[in-house]
Design brief:
614 residues; alpha+beta; Beta-Lactamase; five-stranded parallel β-sheet; 18 helices; 23 strands; 45% helix
Length: 614
């Protein structure tokens, strides 16, 4: 007896893609021997009418329909077809909808540009199995009387790892797939403590150490069920190790290609500029016009290359923080003053009201400038003439909050979840006039703000404006020192090389400040400059705090640290003797060094040891 065909309803408005789908299904039937009964409609309301008649096994749903777009289309279908499997079809530029689609009823998402017959059949079969299991699990939750033997049989055959824990997080059941994910037998996993925090009804990513020592990456989803008459956790784990590996290769490829493009782009731009300037002979007005267009597009391509490199470095963890103590209020005021030239040209207003008191905080000024420039530039781009842009700074006890708001064109509600995704641009028609960006700026902003251990959110309404709100935690001097030294030790351990610290301390610095005001701060800055001059390696770093300088010297052993200590001591001694200020000649300075791993095993030990004069 022949197996019944799978009834597939395709809701797709693109007739060209519909023809492509028909060809893929024909190819799939030939190669895989499966039978499909296909029906096609072009609009959502027609799909809902067909679903009302019943008999559909799976829906392939385009999320760019003329009468319903994005997650709204999915929600409407899911409301009428909870017992039918739904696979979302996405254009490449809608890739940011994937997570939302999976959380709103879709069992899988397929990118149209990457679709082939094998992927189509695999997705349909896996989605049908997954949806059937989902319905069984819901039924199991509602109907306690389902037999444990039947339940075990279903999840034992499922293609995703299933783990059941008691409320103390002890493993009570695992299916066979768990053995390949963990690289361990069932016996090794049963009755052991589950190592990861339980987050209910939300997909989270975890890293599993296999028995071989290799790391597997999995997506985890947890719900509460009844198991053997008691409450328990049901954990579903999907192995995404290979997918993550492919993403890493892709990011590395983008970074490499972008880096290789920089030099030829610079040469091309220089050549075009020389011709435009008339340096190689006169040119006609029409030629200048077209060369100007070429130069503008070279600049745009160079911007894209730089943004791609930034994203690549951020994803690979190659961008490091360089925190220094700054008055952030003054820095923000200078940033706004720079951009006011642009807003004045556009007949816009840019308002910034600084706090009454300085906001001294340890930050990386370059990273903060990049973040602020991006947000203010976006506000200028999407605010019409006579529009208003406002930058505000709030100094709280444990953090600072910066907001950049405008009364421009705003962002549609359905686009807000995609604002920080890569290659996303909103509210400018394809080929339309206006600023043309790379669609990477806000993705870079998010990565940078997370690097600073801060957060960002957006509030917006169409035709009313947009507001970006940043929060950045304050970091104490000691925490800053520990962060830098801990990172230095990690890198030294990875390279199997030494790391040395030197700590120069001005005794009774607070009393000096009370007596001489800001002069001791200027003194510390001058001494820092002198020390930089005597340390000739670019890899050495100096951190300045209240009355103290911490010098981090990578790849420097005990002997090298002693040489550095003598140089620093001589430089400070020479500075004090040459000073014309009598009070400087009376200050007392201590200097100590320490080396990892010879004299300390961790960052705290290394700091403590270096603070002892030697």
């Amino acid at each position: 007896m022949k197996e019944k065909p799978i009834k597939v309803l395709v809701i797709e408005s693109d007739l060209g893609f519909t023809r492509q789908l028909k060809e893929l299904f024909i190819e799939a039937e030939k190669e895989h021997g499966q039978r499909f009964d296909l029906e096609y409609v072009e609009e959502l309301y027609l799909g809902l009418e067909r679903l009302a008649k019943g008999g559909i096994d799976i829906i392939l749903l385009d999320l760019s329909l003329p009468d319903s777009v994005g997650l709204e289309a999915l929600s409407r279908i899911y409301a009428h077809a909870k017992n039918v499997t739904i696979v979302a079809l996405l254009d490449k530029d809608k890739n940011g909808l994937t997570e939302g689609a999976l959380l709103n009823g879709a069992t899988d998402c397929l990118l149209k540009d990457e679709l082939n017959s094998n992927l189509l059949v695999h997705s349909i079969n896996l989605s049908l199995k997954q949806h059937r299991l989902y319905l069984l699990l819901i039924q199991a939750k509602k109907e306690i009387e389902i037999g444990e033997a039947q339940f075990r049989e279903v999840i034992e055959k499922y293609l995703v790892t299933i783990i059941i824990l008691d409320m103390r997080k002890i493993v009570r059941f695992v299916n066979s797939v768990a053995e390949s994910l963990y690289g361990r037998s069932k016996e090794d996993l049963l009755n052991k403590k589950f190592d990861f925090p339980i987050v209910l009804n939300k997909i989270v990513e975890i890293h599993i150490t296999r028995k071989s020592g290799k790391i597997a990456i999995a997506q985890m989803y947890a719900v509460v069920i009844t198991w053997q008459g008691e409450d328990a956790y049901l954990i579903m784990l999907q192995d995404i190790t290979e997918r993550k590996h492919i993403d890493e290769i892709k990011d590395k490829f983008i970074g490499t290609v972008s880096h290789e493009l920089r030099t030829p782009l610079a040469i091309i731009k220089e050549g075009v500029s020389l011709v435009l300037d008339g340096s190689v002979g006169p040119i006609k007005e029409e030629q200048a016009k077209y060369l100007g267009m070429v130069k503008a597009n070279i600049d745009r391509l160079a911007l894209l290359v730089n943004d791609l490199l930034d994203i690549s470095k951020l994803k690979s963890g190659k961008i490091k923080l360089n925190r220094v103590l700054i008055d952030f209020s003054t820095m923000l005021q200078e940033t706004c003053a720079k951009w006011k030239i642009e807003t004045d040209k556009n007949c816009q207003s840019l308002e910034y009201c600084p706090p009454d008191l300085p906001v001294n905080i340890y930050l990386d000024p370059d990273k903060l400038t990049q973040i602020l420039d991006n947000l203010i530039f976006n506000a200028i781009k999407f605010t019409p003439k006579q529009g208003k842009i406002k930058v505000e700074l709030t100094n709280e006890k444990n953090q600072i909050e910066i907001s950049v708001s405008d009364n421009g064109i705003g962002i549609a509600k359905e686009d807000l979840p995609k604002v920080f995704s890569r290659f996303q641009q909103f509210n400018r028609p394809q080929g339309g006039a206006g600023y043309k960006g790379t669609g990477l700026g806000l993705a870079i902003v998010k990565e940078l703000i997370e690097l600073l251990k801060g957060g960002i959110k957006v509030e917006s309404e169409l035709n009313k404006g947009t507001k970006f709100i940043l929060t950045i935690p304050k970091i104490a001097e000691e925490e800053m020192f520990k962060e830098y030294v801990a990172n230095g030790i990690k890198e030294a351990a990875d390279r199997n090389s030494p790391l040395s610290l030197a700590v120069m301390h001005i005794t009774e610095f607070s009393q000096l400040q009370e007596k001489f005001g800001k002069k001791p701060l200027y003194l510390l800055t001058d001494i820092e400059r002198r020390i930089k001059d005597c340390l000739c390696r670019q890899t050495d770093m100096i951190l300045r705090a209240t009355g103290e300088l911490v010098i981090i010297m990578p790849n420097t052993g005990k002997q090298g640290a002693e040489v550095a200590r003598k140089r620093i001591k001589e430089a400070v001694k020479a500075y004090i003797s040459q000073s014309k200020e009598n009070w400087i000649k009376e200050i007392r300075i201590t200097l100590g060094t320490a080396t990892f791993p010879d004299e300390a095993n961790n960052h705290q030990e290394l700091l403590n040891k270096a603070r002892i004069p030697n």
